[in-house]
Design brief:
It comes from Exidia glandulosa HHB12029. By secondary structure, this protein is α/β, with parallel strands linked by helices. Helices cover 22% and strands 20% of the residues. Strand 6, helix 4 and strand 7 form a beta-alpha-beta unit. The radius of gyration is 20 Å and the shape is globular. The model has no long low-confidence stretch (mean pLDDT 83).
Amino acid sequence: MPNVSIDTLVCNYMCPPFNHSKEEAFVPPTRDSEVIVMEHVTKVELNYIQYGLLQWWPVRLSFPALKTIALSDYCNTDAVHNVLAGLAVSSQVRSLEAKFEGERHEDGPGVARLLGHFDHLETVELQSFNLGDRDIVPLVGKGDSESRWTLCPKLRRLHLVGCSFADDRVASSMVDLVEKRALHGPRDPRRDGNSDAGLVLLEEFVLRQIEDRTSVPLWLPGTIGRILRGEDDE
């Protein structure tokens, strides 16, 4: 097989062939199938696809150089998470962009499940998510040693674009998150001379294109900004 050097793999509008069901189009390979190493691919973009068609990726493809994943139609389904778990096996993804395009799920948008696939994330951008308290709270959890965040231990930049909040508790959870994980937050362990080398702290937390002002408090962006700058709350 020729060695093709591509750095970005884009999958657009993938669906079963005309007059074929997804089950007919998807023939899973055997475990002894040849694994194709996509050694030069650093970014994968998945745009409006039926994720069930890609569940063979973990068996047939390996992405050792993969650093960025962009999802234009993320939804909280097993098919989506199976593909993401497969991509995570052979890679160290540093940047994730995800736009929510699915129906409302009883478990919410599954942010913790989404982020939990990737232990090396440094930058996360979430678009059009309706965030609940359970999507934010897991980000402040620590491991048994207290020297490592349980979820996204290397996260430095978190951007929320066009997101809304499911209830009033979300804003308080976000303030708690920034206070605990921000580089200059009041609960930054380095402020007390306790330089914990295992804790990576947030440098950016950005709220942009806030459309639903009824769910996102007007005071929240300013409060987060002051915490990030290490200023006392007014």
